[in-house]
Specification:
Blueprint (H helix, E strand, L loop, with lengths): L13 E10 L9 H9 L5 E3 L3 E5 L5 E6 L6 H20 L3 E4 L9 H4 L8 H11 L4 H4 L3 E7 L3 H14 L3 H5 L4 E2 L2 E2 L5 H6 L21 H16 L18 E4 L4 E8 L4 H19 L6 H5 L3 H14 L4 E2 L2 H5 L8 E2 H9 L4 H13 L2 H6 L8 H17 L9
Antiparallel strand pairs: 1-4, 1-5, 1-6, 2-3, 3-4, 6-10, 7-8, 9-10, 11-12
């Protein structure tokens, strides 16, 4: 996140959303992102930069990322700008008998046999990750997410924003989970992407920590508590020091001090930009309310026990809106006096306190339930390939038409 000056809290937001490239008929992954770039650029470049939206490559060749070229006023504006770009991309892919498919994981991809790393510009970084961690796994080669980049101008703003985001992260899967299937099976987790995200760096656990980041107030403290242990742990695997950068950090929200932003990384991609916009807008609005101390103080937010946040996050990854927050101290951060509350009910209570232009769409989203829950309504525990094809063809249509997935439709 760059500007002539440092952006202050909530002045702008940067938005990134990843999509799968799949075969038009079979919906199997198609590692042709490089060919898409070549069709536009005439070369195997890694970015197609537009005035408002930029396309970028990712770790694997079947994933395409759309992102705001510059930070924008709000998530909804970013979502609207993505719609015509998606139409352009779909037109180009049609010539190669391919389409884009949304959600956070391909429902039957086998990463051990279907992973193709990006083979062109910037591949050295990906090759290093593959060498150290092994990227032929669901947590690496089969995942699509939305990232939000929220700015801060100085240490004071960073500390307040970081404390607020730590409280928001555990609730996100309860709203955004969209990955209930893995290799053709409903695993019992609503967010299989995050199930794998929690452990995909286990060879060097300091890289992801507990996903919920440690409480820190400043850049110096962040370096001492997070960067330094992480860089020391990877040093034996990285003698050229090529990976000892901010982007190595795999927590659910990472500080990007070079950009002056915190990047939230635990939001599953939804079925369409309109759905992504509602989820992203809710996350930003909730973080803003916490930063502004509408319901609890900065000191109380900072001092909340780490273990309760990690426990709720893991439960929400598994159970979505049905996960129960059992820590009354956590609920008090939202000015709720209760011993326990389901995550979906907590989102509903939050929605009623947010500005109406955000709260009403959020209430509708909570009532719809997470996309993963809606997908499961149309599938058995071990769905047939035909059944999954039918469901995910509907999702392909949702993305092309920018609409919500309705389990009762079609």
């Amino acid at each position: 996140m760059t500007d002539e000056r440092r952006l202050h809290l909530f002045e702008r937001v940067g938005v990134e959303i990843e999509y799968m490239i799949v075969d038009q008929e079979t919906l199997d992954v198609r590692p042709i992102a490089d060919k898409l770039f070549h069709d536009v650029l005439g070369t195997y470049g890694s970015d197609v930069e537009g005035e408002t939206v930029t396309w970028s490559n990712e770790l694997v060749a079947h994933v395409l990322e759309l992102k705001t070229t510059l930070p924008v006023e709000n998530v909804e504006l970013a979502g609207r700008s993505f719609v015509p770009e998606l139409s352009r991309i779909l037109s180009l892919l049609q010539k190669r008998d391919a389409v884009l498919m949304p959600t956070a994981m391909h429902p039957w991809m086998n990463p051990k046999t279907e992973t193709t790393l990006w083979p062109h510009e910037g591949r050295e970084v990906y090759e290093n990750f593959d060498r150290v961690f092994g990227c032929q796994g669901h947590g690496w080669s089969n995942l699509q997410s939305m990232h939000l980049n929220l700015p801060f101008a100085n240490d004071e703003e960073f500390g307040r924003l970081h404390a607020a985001i730590r409280l928001v992260l555990p609730l996100i899967p309860a709203l955004a989970a969209s990955s209930p299937f893995e290799e053709g099976i409903a695993t019992g987790w609503l967010d299989n992407r995050l199930k794998h995200y929690r452990t995909n760096s286990k060879r060097i656990p300091q890289v992801a920590g507990e996903v919920i980041p440690e409480p820190v107030r400043s850049q110096e403290e962040y370096h001492d508590k997070i960067f330094k242990p992480m860089f020391e742990a990877i040093a034996p695997f990285d003698p050229e020091e090529e990976m000892q950068e901010e982007w190595l950090n795999a927590r659910g929200a990472i500080a990007r001090f070079e950009r002056g932003s915190i990047e939230i990384r635990v939001i599953d991609s939804q079925e369409s930009p309109v759905a992504d916009s509602i989820v992203g807008s809710a996350v930003v609005a909730l973080a803003r309310s916490l930063v502004q101390e509408e319901w609890s103080s900065y000191e109380d937010q900072f001092s909340l026990d780490q273990s309760s946040l990690v426990e709720l996050f893991e439960n929400a990854c598994r159970r979505g809106e049905e996960a129960v927050a059992l820590d009354s101290r956590y609920l008090r951060m939202f000015d709720i006096v209760s011993a326990a509350m389901k995550a979906g009910d907590l989102w509903r209570a939050i929605a009623r306190r947010l500005p109406v232009e955000i709260g009403e769409p959020l209430l509708n989203q909570v009532d719809r339930k997470p996309l993963a829950r809606r997908l499961l309504l149309n599938a058995h525990e071990k769905p047939s390939k035909t059944q999954l094809l039918t469901i995910y063809r509907q999702l392909v249509d949702c993305l092309a038409e920018n609409r919500f997935f309705d389990p009762n439709r079609g």
